[in-house]
Structures are given as structure tokens and as C-alpha cells.
Amino acid sequence: MKRACFSLLLCLVLGTPVWAASGLDAPRTEAQEARARVRELREHQQALRAELNTLAGRIEQLKAEQKGRLVAGPELQGALRQSQELSGQLTGLAQSLAGAESDAERKNLTLHTALSAELDRVRAAWDATSDRQARAGLIARMRALRTERDALRSALPPSQVLAPPSLATSDDSEDLLEQADALRDSEDKVRERLKTLRARLTEVREERELDRRMSDFLGEESMFDEQDRRLNLRVDGSGTVSVNATPRLGGGGLFSSREEAIPTLPDLTVGDSSPIPPANPPPSPGAPGTGGGVGGNPGPSEPPGSSHSPPPRVSHQASDSRPQVGTVRAQALASDAVDDVRALEQEAARLESLARELGARAGSLERRARELR
């Protein structure tokens, strides 16, 4: 009777890998198909990008050949139309690729969970049998499952596989130590990623501080440099008075010279109290050759019956050469750099919490393994 029960138990143990393989076939096939779909979409995307780059070069060549023409030729129009179509295809393909990658990630995670569950079942079968031949087969099976799971883990995001769902309930000290080692490895990966993230956060903060200091420095240089801050007037003969602002230098007065900021034409300062001479002064009476004879009679150079034309009015054009201060810092404060720093800080806090949790779980397993020894 005992021999029959032992034979039945041995058959069940030896048949476990076959049942496990059949249970893993479905998630493994789905994961392989999802990965193949992602690979196919990426290859198609690369081909479209290469075609679009080639077409862009052709468009530039056609534009250079048709320089000066008001209407584009049929070949250029066709190339532009094809470029728009390729851009639309790339946009749709990018959306499809994002969906395929998300689906492949879900399928890989499902397969990873199935492999972990199958590994637990094989380990339980190894603990339940005492036959050396059966144990050797189960050990080979566990090694194959671990190899496949580790290869799959590298394709998953760290946040999906670093935190185990729960602590193991095994009573074997060696098994507990093995699980604790896996948790320590996961903790080391999280710490390494956290170190890289903190380095990036420090770099972003230093860049922002440098931008702020440079903006303050440029503002101070623009306020206390040697540029002329007077409003200058330019005299012309248009008959109107207009004020036009001169183009401002984007960086302030640090890299600009006085000659670049002040107009080279002769100017008259607004604060000058002397009258502005007209462009064409009116003729004075009695001047020879100007038609200003005595009694208003036309001079010898004017035909009889002609009248004096009114003198042209004088136009005064003002230019503001004062530097512009404080725009760089306002643009920096209006950007989304603050949101980037805040997101990096939140991610660093999450990774720090995950690392502490993994360390606590590993320590608990190690204490339990020492108690069982």
C-alpha cells in the first residue's frame, strides 16, 4: 500500500513540469507576439523616417532650383504633399507604437508573474519529494525558469518588478535567504537609480542657479554700463514728428559697445533748449536771386505771376537708445523648470521609499532565516 502511494506521488511530482509548461504556453505566446508587434512597428517607423529625411533633402534641392519663382513647380508640390502624408503616417504610427509598447509591457508582466508562480510551485514540489532523481529534474526546471524570468525582468520597468507583492511564507532557511538576496539586489538597483536621479536633480538646480546669477549680472551691467540713455532726435524733411524705438539688444549691455547703441547720424538731444533749424529756411526779403524784391514784387529770377511756395515742414524723429533690463530672468521664471524640478524630487522621494521598503523586507526575511536555523 505504501509502495503504491509512493509511486502515485512520484508520478505527480514528475508530471508537474509538463503541466507547468502547458500553463505557461499561453502567456509566453502572447508576450512573444506583443514583442514581435513592437519590433515590426519600430522597423516601419525607422523606414518612414529614412524616407522622410531623403524627401526633405529633395525638397530643399527643388526649392534652391526654383528660387525666385512665385509659383512652385509640380514636382515640388508633389514632394511637399508626399512629405505631409509621411508626417501624418509617422504621427499615427507613433500612437500605434505607444499602444503596442504598453500592451507588450502588460503581457511581459503577466508572463513574469506566471513564471514566478510556476517557480514557487516547482520549489514546493522539490520540498515535497525526497527522490534524488526527481529533485535533480526539479532543480534543472527551476534554473530554466529563473533564467527566463531574469531575461524578462530586464525588459520591464523597474517599478513593475522591484517590489515583490508579498513576503514569502516558506519555512526553509536557505529559501528565505535566497529571497532576501533577491530583495537586496532589487534594493541595490533602486539605490543606483536613485543616485543617478539625484545627480540629475543637482545638475538641474545648479543650471537654474547659474541662469539666475547670469541674468542678475546682465541686468546690473545693463543698468550701470556706459550706454547713452538720452532720447535722441533725428531731423528729416517729412513734415511730421514721430518717435521710433531702436531695436534692443537681447543680452543687455554686456556684449554691446557704445557705438552699437548710439546712432551714428548727427542727433539733437531733447534737453537742448536751442531752436531746431528748419531743413529749408524761408528766403529773406531783399536777398539776391531769391525772388524777395522790395514790396513783394518778384525778383529778376522769378517769372511774373509766380507766388512763394510754403516752406516744407520739419520732422523730428526720436530714438530711444536706453538698454532693456530684466527680460531673461522673467522668461526663466515663466518657464516650466520649476515643474521639472518638482517632478524629479517626487520621483526621488518615491524611489527612496521603495528602497527602504525593500531593505525592511530583506531584513525581516534574514531574521526569520536565522530563527529557523
Automatic annotation (TrEMBL):
Keyword Ligase found: no
Record key words, sorted: Coiled coil, Signal
Comp. bias intervals (Pro residues): 275-286
Ranges of biased composition (kind: Gly residues): 288-298
Source organism, top-level taxon: Bacteria
Gene3D superfamilies: 1.10.287.1490
Region annotation Disordered: where it falls in the sequence: 155-174, 239-258, 265-328
Coiled-coil parts of chain: 31-65, 334-368
The keyword Ribosomal protein is assigned to this record: no
Stretch forming the signal peptide: 1-20
Protein name stated in the entry: SasN
